[in-house]
Amino acid sequence: xxxxxxxxxxxxxxxxxxxxxxxxxxxxxxxxxxxxxxxxxxxxxxxxxxxxxxxxxxxxxxxxxxxxxxxxxxxxxxxxxxxxxxxxxxxxxxxxxxxxxxxxxxxxxxxxxxxxxxxxxxxxxxxxxxxxxxxxxxxxxxxxxxxxxxxxxxxxxxxxxxxxxxxxxxxxxxxxxxxxxxxxxxxxxxxxxxxxxxxxxxxxxxxxxxxxxxxxxxxxxxxxxxxxxxxxxxxxxxxxxxxxxxxxxxxxxxxxxxx
Length: 259
Ligand code: NAP
What we know:
Layout: E1 9-12, H1 18-29, E2 33-38, H2 41-55, E3 59-63, H3 69-79, E4 84-87, H4 102-130, E5 133-138, H5 151-171, E6 176-183, H6 189-202, H7 206-214, H8 225-236, E7 247-250
Helix pairs in contact: 1-2, 1-8, 4-5, 6-7
């Protein structure tokens, strides 16, 4: 399907690996020029060069912590007037509800709620002025079905979801859509880290830990960054202008509900 995005410009945050990388690849394949971001300069530059070579589009890497105001300012300066924004950052650490301090909450809110909100506040006015724009926030299945040990993530991402629910309706009259993609378990470094911890704690192999988790998913497998990126590119496409303020689960059926 032709997505109608050739020549558009996108900022994809936290995109040297994993789900952000999947989104960057899919947008580049649709002919979108990219600004991509991650903290590690080496992996980011390699990713940018690979994406540019594979898809024949311009890809500008900006190595910075997107959750830090100075880093974000550098990324936004390079991005300029983009048509598409994909927000993403690493998730907060696991823990126990009784142990988290105010500072832990502030860090999580900064990273996974206030950072995407600040990016939207910076870029939505230009999209509105030009009469077209797309925002996709990478959140988590945890906003629909909390993961108890990831309480910081549950809290921050649910706050972002509330902001998007209202704001998406305010910008929609201007041809701008905001939607959230909710990943379930995907085969990325993050999933490897979680599975390695389980393998260590239970004295089983990494393969066994993965197989046990995959067995809990109706699709009986993890999602891929390619599948995730394709969904993101479709939400950014000219065909998705009537999809407004939605929370779309990509979880192999893990969230069990009729609607
Ligand atoms: P990943 O494979 O670990 O990749 C994370 C990417 O983000 C890397 O490119 C990393 O590069 C970059 N990054 C992390 N923190 C950053 C920051 N502060 N500023 C700029 N770049 C940053 O993770 P993933 O699996 O793609 O996960 C992406 C998001 O989806 C996370 O918030 C995660 O919690 C959420 N999620 C993932 C899953 C899953 O199963 N994979 C499920 C639910 C939710 P650097 O480290 O070099 O910065």
